[in-house]
Amino acid sequence: xxxxxxxxxxxxxxxxxxxxxxxxxxxxxxxxxxxxxxxxxxxxxxxxxxxxxxxxxxxxxxxxxxxxxxxxxxxxxxxxxxxxxxxxxxxxxxxxxxxxxxxxxxxxxxxxxxxxxxxxxxxxxxxxxxxxxxxxxxxxxxxxxxxxxxxxxxxxxxxxxxxxxxxxxxxxxxxxxxxxxxxxxxxxxxxxxxxxxxxxxxxxxxxxxxxxxxxxxxxxxxxxxxxxxxxxxxxxxxxxxxxxxxxxxxxxxxxxxxxxxxxxxxxxxxxxxxxxxxxxxxxxxxxxxxxxxxxxxxxxxxxxxxxxxxxxxxxxxxxxxx
Length: 322
What we know:
With about 325 residues, this protein is of the alpha/beta class. The protein has 14 helices and 8 strands. It is about 40% helix and about 15% strand. It has an 8-stranded mixed sheet, with helices on both faces. β2 (about 115), α9 (about 125-130) and β3 form a beta-alpha-beta unit.
């Protein structure tokens, strides 16, 4: 594949024709990530909202509609958000391979780099890393997700590189990766309970409170910072989420504070516009509560080291005049 270039600006547009074409090229190489068994179960709205499912049974039978249809027409906002999130991700959240490619191009200082993620999810980040000549280590708490990933590993194997996944709690990262050994941390952690992945005790997505969720991330990210070499980047992709009253938690702000408290500089805040075929349909309904439909995520860029000397450690990128 030829190099893919975008402008070095604070906005990336995954809705553009060039981006969509590049993504299709990557998906032809990587193939579908596949669902884990836990995701297939916990992606169900009935499993996510069992109380609401039970309370509305008689009314749904009277109306002659399914639970999904009830959520669409009458459900609370958090349930509708979950439904739309599942639609956007085709039932399972996947990492955009074009975004991974851009991050590796912009924020890795060397060839044959070592990349890692303690909330690995599917195989995309690892597959793109291997295609670009790097090695990747992923940790995910779900046995079936790790099984799916490792089944795909052989297809991406390259001599002198490794693509490996371990099944464990993200907070046990240091069991698998040494201190100050990695060239890039890249992660898109769970968005609290917007998408529940499993019922495992250490799964950040099923925690009883937002505070419990953040504490898991705080522990895991602190260990991730330890694994990074000095003068290296950590990239975290996040989007804000609402509580049951419709108020934002300020999830991105909490992630920023975590990395700053671990001594990392907060260098860039990149907006990623994402495709969302249902946004216009939902917008009028959301505005009844004076809320706008969110169609972007934030790519938060942190640096472990002395940011004033980045130019000494990272070579200039090619000229880009798009």
